[in-house]
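Sequence of 4,5-DOPA dioxygenase extradiol (Enterovibrio norvegicus).
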Amino acid sequence: MSLPTQASMGQRMPALFIGHGTPIYTLSENRYTNAWKQIARGMAVPKAILCISAHWMTRGTRITTADYPKTIYDFGPIDTRLNVIEYKAPGAPSLARDIAGRLPFDIELDEGWGLDHGAWTVLRHMYPDANVPVVQMSLDMNLSAREHFERGKALDFLRYENVLILASGNIVHNLTVIDPREDHAYPWALHADAKMAHHMVQNDIESLIDYSSLGEDIELAIPTPEHYWPLLYALGAKNDDDILSFPVMGISHGSNSMRSVLISPQ
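Predicted 3D structure, token representation.
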């Protein structure tokens, strides 16, 4: 199936949060990878992608400027098939420099980082021809949840310039209690995932920023914030007249939410 035509300048692109889950999912066609394909088919082809992944945490903020970002295998010995995959999308150094120059906070240009598995395991299904340039921006571990949300708001201008903001993490992500059964879901994980979805539908941003006050199930769901923070970038880029939807849902391996959040213009 052919992809849609490229969006016109000034036509607002969606913003997207993907629950990427285990890298194993990228190896096969399954309900998650098929949904990622459908998301891409349902939108215009962007001129470039800005990816914000849970797997690039830095002190200060960095943005990639490599002409051809390397594929990073930032996981343990899961499956040898993963370590031979290369996602050869081009970078966009000029776009990265433009973004760094226009944002109201400091960004360090970084030629060494590539695309970690929060990016490539998803992108190789959304854009299998690797023909859309990708730039990755890191998560500054020194920032608060509110500051991450505000950075998402500051990135909103990219949506009017045919750049897809793609955030990648997991709303529920607790690997300390992971279950080997792929289709298992702990009751607290289901409850936490549904609670966060409710606050998104209600546009209750304050609760989503102050998530640690939402109860014990949320404490279990977000024991560390790096997989949750990317969601705040997508929500920060949301306009008042955008439509919020959940093109992917589900809990995998007990304690990992695969929920994706699509923010689309009407």
